[in-house]
Automatic annotation (TrEMBL), chain A:
Keywords: Cytoplasm. CDD domains: eIF-2B_epsilon_N, LbH_eIF2B_epsilon, W2_eIF2B_epsilon. The lineage of its organism: Eukaryota, Viridiplantae, Streptophyta, Embryophyta, Tracheophyta. InterPro entries: ARM-type_fold, eIF-2B_epsilon_N, eIF2B_epsilon, LbH_EIF2B3/5, NTP_transferase_dom, Nucleotide-diphossugar_trans, W2_domain, W2_eIF2B_epsilon. The keyword Transit peptide does not apply. Residues 547-718 form the W2 domain. Residues 439-462, 514-541 are annotated as: Disordered. The keyword Cytoplasm applies. Belongs to the eIF-2B gamma/epsilon subunits family. This is Translation initiation factor eIF2B subunit epsilon. Residues 515-524 have a biased composition (Acidic residues). Component of the translation initiation factor 2B (eIF2B) complex which is a heterodecamer of two sets of five different subunits: alpha, beta, gamma, delta and epsilon. Subunits alpha, beta and delta comprise a regulatory subcomplex and subunits epsilon and gamma comprise a catalytic subcomplex. Within the complex, the hexameric regulatory complex resides at the center, with the two heterodimeric catalytic subcomplexes bound on opposite sides. It is found in: Cytoplasm, Cytosol. It comes from Camelina sativa (False flax). Its main location: cytoplasm.
Automatic annotation (TrEMBL), chain B:
It holds the Pfam family NTP_transferase. Residues 5-147 form the Nucleotidyl transferase domain. The gene is LOC104706279. Residues 350-431 form the EIF2B subunit epsilon/gamma LbH domain. The keyword Cytoplasm applies. It is found in: Cytoplasm, Cytosol. Acts as a component of the translation initiation factor 2B (eIF2B) complex, which catalyzes the exchange of GDP for GTP on the eukaryotic initiation factor 2 (eIF2) complex gamma subunit. Its guanine nucleotide exchange factor activity is repressed when bound to eIF2 complex phosphorylated on the alpha subunit, thereby limiting the amount of methionyl-initiator methionine tRNA available to the ribosome and consequently global translation is repressed. Belongs to the eIF-2B gamma/epsilon subunits family. GO terms for molecular function: translation initiation factor activity. Component of the translation initiation factor 2B (eIF2B) complex which is a heterodecamer of two sets of five different subunits: alpha, beta, gamma, delta and epsilon. Subunits alpha, beta and delta comprise a regulatory subcomplex and subunits epsilon and gamma comprise a catalytic subcomplex. Within the complex, the hexameric regulatory complex resides at the center, with the two heterodimeric catalytic subcomplexes bound on opposite sides. Keywords: Cytoplasm, Initiation factor, Protein biosynthesis. It comes from Camelina sativa (False flax). This is Translation initiation factor eIF2B subunit gamma. The keyword Cytoplasm applies.
Amino acid sequence: MGGQKKGGARVSEDAEEQSPQRLQAILLADSFATKFRPVTLERPKVLLPIVNVPMIGYTLAWLEYAGIEEVFVFCCAHAIQIIEYLEKSEWYSHPNLVVRTIESHKSISAGDALRYMYEQQAETSQIQGDFVLVSGDTVSNMPLADLIQEHRERKKKDEKAIMTMAIKQSKSSSLTHQSRLGTDQLFIAVDPLTKQLLHYEEDKIDHPRGSVCLDKSLLESNPSVLVSNDMQDCYIDICSPEVLSLFEDNFDYQHLRRHFVKGVLVDDIMGYKIFTHEIHSSYAARIDNFRSYDTVSKDIIQRWTYPYVPDINFSGNRPLKLGRQGIYRACDAVLSRSADVGASSVIGYGTKIGDGVKILNSVIGNGCSIGSNVVIEGSYIWNNVTIEDGCEIRNAIVCDGVKIRAGAVLEPGVVLSFNVVVGRDFVVPAYSKVSLLQQPTTEDSDEELEYADSSSGTADHLSGLNLQMESKASELGPDGAGYIWEVCEGAHDEEWKHSVAPIPKDKLAEITQAIDDDDTDDESVVPTSGELKSDADSINTDMNDPNDDYCYFEKEVEGTVLRAVEENIKVDLVTLEINGLRLSYNMESADCAGATFYSMMKLAVDTPHNSASELYKNAASIITKWKELLGFYVKKIDEQIEVIMKFEEMCQEPPKELGPLFTQILHLLYDKDVLQEDAILRWAEEKAGADETDKVYLKQCETFIQWLKEASEEEDEDDEDEEDDD
Amino acid sequence: MDFQVVILAGGFSSNLVPLVSKEVPKALLPVANRPVLSYVLDLLESNNLKDLIVVVEGEDAALKVGGWISSACVDRLHVEVAAVAENVGTAGALRAIAHHLTANDILIVSGDIVSDIPPGAVAATHRRHDAAVTVMLCAQPVSGPSESGGSGGKDKTKKPACEDIVGLDSWKQFLLYIAKGTEIKKDTRVNKSILCAAGKMELRSDLMDSHIYAFKRSVLQEVLDQKPAFRSLKQDVLPYLVRTQLRSDVSSDQNNVEENGNGKNNMQNNEVVLSQVLSNASLPSFHQVYESGLDSRKTHKCCVYIADESKYFVRLNSIQAFMDVNRDVIGDANHLSGYSFSAHHNIVHPSAELGSKTTVGPHCMLGEGSQVGDKCSVKRSVIGRHCRIGSNVKIVNSVVMDHATIGDGCSIQGSVICSNAQLQERVTLRDCQVEAGYIVCAGGEHKGETFARK
């Protein structure tokens, strides 16, 4: 921590010395996700064309426009292709923007990438101060200078303000609970005055209903907290150098939001703060899945992203001519007279369109040739695609070099990867993803560095990938080429949620129904979720509370004892700790005795053993070693009885291993002076009146108690004798 | 204004022992020498709400309150006094008097508030949104209820306990979440369906429920009938309504039609719709949006009215609050008292007698016929009627009720002396309460004690 602080201080000093500082950005040219498979097997995501311009072109053009002077493009998968593109498109030689590429093939997550940057930083110290962190699939036209200024000023006042993230209002659908970009709905809590981010929660698909849980400390420390679910995270962050070092310190941070943001919010030791900046008038969106690909494409065609629109050259693209109804057409595109190009369509250079073709809401790339009587609706046709006569294409993505033979039909949601050939009259079923490459299995997934960003996701995917289709190159009809990828089990929902196709009506009806059902469920359970409870409920919980408390207490003590045994901590330190627990849980000394004994015995049981005698040995060694600790709490008879009772309880717990050893261990405790005979005898007396079932262990140790009784009598007699002697 | 007002005046609050007794129910505790209930009645009268039902717990208390009301304001207001059994809770009390309720909307006001926030505004908000329930919220006092800062050194150091946690929509019109202030110790769980429907929710712990509610009668009665276990309006009925606002079981409109299904009612409904359209035509509330998205789904609205921060509001529900209210009403919030103050910012009744070299400071009140001996000093205190105060007595930040006797050389700070109590000579009290009729022996020095006959 010390070293990192130093680093932070040095950088901020630098910042003060040489203001105005260069505006820098880190652009992650890899999404570290698999949402765009199979297309991303052959081409990195940031180079996929959106309205005929690679995504990274939009991002770089925007950064340049926003006044960023130096950008580090971090490449992982297909790094060579990205570098090639940058060279070809002259971003390397741009006058205002210095583009540097950083290659790393080992990084499999944003966290790894930033850690790599941090390591590089030590040698080259490229990052001089605050920087903008974006991914290469961002389309935006928001100004950054003010935001960076705001961040810097806040940082000057409050050293802990290390990050500012841009958010934008976007109401998610009340039915599907996903935003129009197809991302899960987001719940964030912000301090309405300072705009500090207090809570960040992405709704998981697994448990979409229920309630948002805000930590108690939030409301205690803030008089007012704004919880919103109509915000969308733009994934545009202004970061201070501390962010890099935080990633270095926490090597398990992978995902920028799920790990890093959550980690910062939870960690109150370092006290770092994240702030939000709501953008109102400008556009910002990240293309995260096929649905957002569709949405953002439409936004671009509708000119929300101005000046990054098809009729303006912003990234070496050839501008198209804008006609009525939002139809962009290249000047050399050849359209048949009878072709009907509907609203909001884009037609690229060198494309030929035949007779009777209907095109609506679609983007068609450069060099395509489309036969006659083809219907294309809501689809994205990339470059050099050949579509023969009479095809129907609805809500599909068709990559470069694809051939669709006459009469073929693409149902909604289809994705055809590079150079796939769809056979004559073949119907590609809805939501299928087709590639020339086979669906990779676990072994060969190394070839490509686009990994799932969370471990669970990886597992899901990999299990799905195992269902590899063997050598069915003709899956797309006799004259076709390509494999239809299997959908993995867990992703069935994603299929329609994240597809380019609009959500079908029957699905919506299904969801509506599900919501109704859910609500009725809610009704019957009504766990009142932290709100005021009805009287009946509160009585119940009141009764439970002490028990719960005890359980927690017991767990804590167990943990403490376990640690003490493992790390060989001194007895007095352990007692100190247990005393602390006792105070905080408001427990009696007897409870401590019970809990301590319980944890010791549990330890004995948990230590590997083969037979009852070994178990006894374990128990004996632990008791011998830690009897002082126990002795601290069993000074009174009552506490000793509590220990015996606890022991009895334990013996009854499955697997009942301790049961047969009851007498032996009791004897041991007596021998070690943990228990006094008075306590054992009192316990025996108390138990004498109990039910038969309760007396199992009493009976077991009858002889021992008998012996104790006799011994004490003898003692008494001895005493008497002595007295007599006197 | 077709509003019926129910004043929940309570009975003998255990929080206020020893100030309340069989003789003095909570509603009749004097604030600046008149019963606290009179402040509520004045407030309602000034808002032209004159059809009142005062609900008192216990027959004896009801008789006492009724007696006072008939003597004080029978000519101005139409007041009914209803007695209910003790400890039935607020919801129970309403259940007991349900047959008295006839108007479409019911305004429920706690009988122990001293305030100048207009209940009429709550009623108006309620009507405008056609809400099932409307809650008045007011700003939580920043440092205890004392803004005067006169004596409040103690109050300031102590952080005010959070009274309520409320969740509001972004226009601060609707109540989306409510929890007791004590829940702040636990994690807050916000229901996602309501949050999603509303988009934004602002959780505030700096507002508190002022115990002024407007209910739609049909909704209130249905909830009270359906949920016999509900005892408290605030803790049971209100959270229930807030929780179920998007899947309402209380079908208010239908009932109206069924109950008095005549043309007139329909016309009224139309009027309501029309007034809604006129008032906030631009945006339908999220309730309507939600309703339209799903068929066969009913919603009801839970609205809030947030009182202006400059308004004064205190509930007399603890001894500390009693002290604060008394001090404020003759101090900073003196417009509430209804008295006219002298140039010295105090009120000394003409019939009161002051000895020589006795000073009565600002923010003091000296009741009718009280006598104060020589060389006394009275600061920021209320002294009742016909009190006898000896010489060399110092009274600071205290309340002395009617007919109390205070011997020579006493010093009283931050204390309450109830009526007919007697302090013998040279008693020093600090933060003490003396029960009515109690006699404190001479020369004692006490701090933070309660004097009451066991």
